[in-house]
Amino acid sequence: MKDIKFEDALQRLEQIVDQLEGGDLALDDSLKVFEEGVALARRCAKYLEEAEKRIELLTKDDSGLPKADPFEWDKDSQG
User: How far is CA 32 from CA 41, 45, 52, in A?
Assistant: First the structure.
């Protein structure tokens, strides 16, 4: 699962949520799907942490030199 793309992991995670919310799976199957979902959620979180670190490294100050400023996402301006 390490080589899965973020977008693919997120899509599979959404499918898992739909399956679990549907309530049609047997308990054993639900547990297996839930375990897969937890692993995917952790992988997605790791992707996001890595992306944040890359953004910090790529941020530059006024002189063009790199500086590490935390990336601040304005949730209110997103649609």
Answer: 14, 20, 31
Crossing angle, helix 27-58 and helix 6-22, to 10 degrees? 150
pTM of the predicted model over 0.90: no
Which strand (E) or helix (H) includes residue 28? helix 27-58
- Look up the CATH number of the domain holding residue 11: 1.10.287
- Any domain includes 70: no
Write out pLDDT tens, residues 51-69.
888 877 777 666 766 666 6
Residue 78 lies in a domain: no
Report if residue 75 sits inside a domain: no
